[in-house]
Amino acid sequence: MTVEPVDIVSLTRSLVDIDSTTGREGAAGRWLADYLRGRGWSVEEQRVDATRFNVLAGVVQGFSPAVVFSTHFDCVPSFFPSRVEGDRLFGRGSCDAKGILAAQVAAAEQLRRDGESRIGLVFLVGEERGSDGARVADEAARGHGARFLINGEPTDNRLGLATRGILRLKLRASGRAAHSSFPELGESAIDTLIDALIELRSIALPGDPVLGQTHYTVGLISGGVAPNVVSPSAEAEVMFRTTSDAAEVRRAVAPLERRVTIEHVLEVPTVRLKTVPGFETAVFPYTTDIPFLASWGEPLLFGPGSIHEAHTADESVSIAELTAAAGQYVTLARALLE
Ligand SMILES: [Zn+2]
User: Fold this and answer.
1) How far away, in angstroms, is 133 Cα from ligand 1 center?
2) Ligand 1 center–CA 259 separation, angstroms
3) Model pLDDT, residue 187
4) What number of helices (H) and strands (E) belong to the chain?
5) Which of 46, 118, 122, 300 might form a disulfide with 70, Cβ 3.0–4.6 angstroms?
6) Could you tell me if 216 and 239 are in contact, meaning their C-beta atoms sit under 8 angstroms apart?
7) What is the pLDDT of residue 141?
8) Is 257 a catalytic residue?
9) Does the structure show a pLDDT above 80 at 336?
């Protein structure tokens, strides 16, 4: 079997030029599945909903890889096509994560060229909004028997030591409506909510020696019915980037329940990652698909590009970094396969 080397720039551009904003990944999935089949991979299209599917590929049918390369091919809005300027490749998803996907395919093809068949590819939809693709892939993973999962997100070609988790809480205040000319007859939910948010600022949140202190953002706030009405209700959504068990954060903010009710919206755990000697390491404040891929083996996190480029209006990635990443993915896989 001869395996042609992969042109990383051309593969990235082909993928970037197909709009795969989360929710409409169908066309990109079909193109990717055909591309991999055309190169001789055994490909499985794993249905996630009526129009969207994950693309799984193995060297041989049956698909029991020891090492799996994985990332996502959905993107945040807004779509814009690819272009190259000097060393930089621009386009939505160039950095997060279609360039990464191309580097992983290039690495997998290099390994296959060297006769290595214990590798697999797991390319997912829905990472940017709830990880529904990863959840389906995890369900179906049992029996595939992968030992290591090399997940790709922009880490500037450093190995992740750990990633922060997420805890989203909704704080709800209730009051009593009244005409604003007689405020003493009402009770302002907005005032109560503000008091709770001010109290939150003085609460000591848990920390971790590797990941640092938990921090948070009050990302959404709403309340009231009209300028001349004492507000009967108000709510705020707070997103914590956690560094330990989310239950510790829940305990720390429990005193706020004297003022507001606290509703649990979403939780993603912190993750500790496997490392390999010889690679630069770093911790990352964001979360990935990894917490939802527990059945795919011990996780590693590595990818070209910077998280500061991801999701920006003129997203781009360094071509030299993409090429270097392909080589480093090969080195990582070899170390894990030994
Ligand atoms: Zn990403």
Assistant:
1) 13
2) 37
3) 97
4) 7, 18
5) 122
6) yes
7) 79
8) no
9) yes
